[in-house]
Design a protein that fits this description.
This protein has 287 residues and is mainly β. The chain folds into 2 domains: 5-117 and 270-284, Rossmann fold (3-Layer(aba) Sandwich), CATH 3.40.50.10330; 124-262, Tumour Suppressor Smad4. Helix content is 12%, strand content 39%. The chain is built from 4 helices and 17 strands. The strands form 3 sheets. The chain has a 6-stranded antiparallel sheet, with no helix packed on it. A 6-stranded antiparallel sheet has the order 13-12-11-8-15-16, with no helix packed on it. A 5-stranded parallel sheet has the order 3-2-1-4-5, with helices on both faces. The longest helix has 11 residues, at 70-80. The protein is elongated and about 60 Å long.
């Protein structure tokens, strides 16, 4: 992989003075790669960077470096999935399952130019809303999860779920989480769902606070096609949230079709440790 152009995406909340961002830029100077950042940071990062607008930042990049937590990496994936650009995360969050480097490991960035790294392909999910009173609407792909709920208030919802045309279950719960292996350590895990090896081609379906004792999380093959419908009064609404970013209001007669997306996210791994080592270390850390 030849790296000529790198898009650097800071997080001014987690790195308010952009001190770590400036150190990252300094580590990359002299490598021969051109660094790009959005022009809003022009007054704080003065050397070694070419500034551009947000719409052009990742368009011609060979690599994206994200400083932040898992949420920042998800945002970068949403900006770049059409372009198939690998992402390297520097963890400024509390846990940071997706990031490969910690702030004290910036010296390892030089490995990018010796080829001493690997790229993990992470599956994404896509959802399409269908209904008699609306045209089909397909969501942006989700790297973590797609969540179905009743709304902002904590109220029970009744969901019927089909998997590839076969009835998979009836759920009476606060909601239902469809999680990728990457997202299995996020909301799904907090709701009691299984942790999936990120190399798996699988989807976890986890009910949120289920009312029935026999409602348990399940793991389905990655090629599964789900269809979810909800029992509601005609005037009522239910909601779908994609990666905690996009929220879709649904009518009582709407149905959701969820399947693996044709797109994936490519995350750079610069260490030799595997998924289980990362999981063991991250789940034992104080948050």
């Amino acid at each position: 992989m030849i790296i000529r152009k790198i898009a650097v995406i800071p997080n001014s909340v987690k790195d308010p003075g952009l001190e770590l961002t400036a150190k990252t830029v300094k580590e990359l100077q002299g490598t021969g790669a051109e660094l790009f950042m959005e022009s809003e940071y022009m007054d704080r990062i003065r050397e070694g960077v070419t500034f551009t607008g947000p719409e052009d930042l990742v368009r011609d990049a060979d690599l994206i470096i994200v400083l932040g937590g898992d949420g920042s990496i998800i945002d970068a994936a949403r900006r770049s999935y059409l372009l198939d650009i690998p992402i390297l995360g520097i963890n400024l969050g509390r846990v940071g399952y997706m990031a490969t480097l910690e702030p004290e490991e910036l010296h390892m960035l030089k490995k990018l130019f010796s080829g001493d790294f690997s790229i993990d392909e992470r599956i994404m999910l896509s959802a399409t809303v269908c209904g008699p009173d609306r045209s089909p609407e397909t969501t942006p792909p989700a790297l973590n999860d797609i969540v179905l709920t009743r709304g902002e208030l904590s109220r029970m919802i009744d969901i019927e779920l089909l998997c590839s045309g076969e009835l998979a279950g009836h759920y009476r719960a606060d909601g239902l989480i469809f999680s990728t292996p990457t997202g299995s350590t996020a909301y799904s895990m907090s709701a009691g769902g299984p942790v999936l090896d990120t190399a798996l081609d699988a989807v976890a379906v986890t009910p949120i606070c289920p009312h029935y004792l026999n409602s348990r999380p399940m793991v389905f093959a990655g090629g599964s096609v789900f269809e979810a419908s909800c029992t509601l009064d005609a005037e009522s609404r239910w909601f779908m949230t994609v990666d905690g970013r996009d929220n879709f209001a649904l009518g009582a007669s709407d149905r959701i079709r969820i399947s693996k997306s044709g797109y994936s996210t490519r995350l750079i791994n610069m260490k030799k440790n595997g998924f289980y080592d990362v999981l063991r270390r991250k789940t034992s850390e104080k948050i």
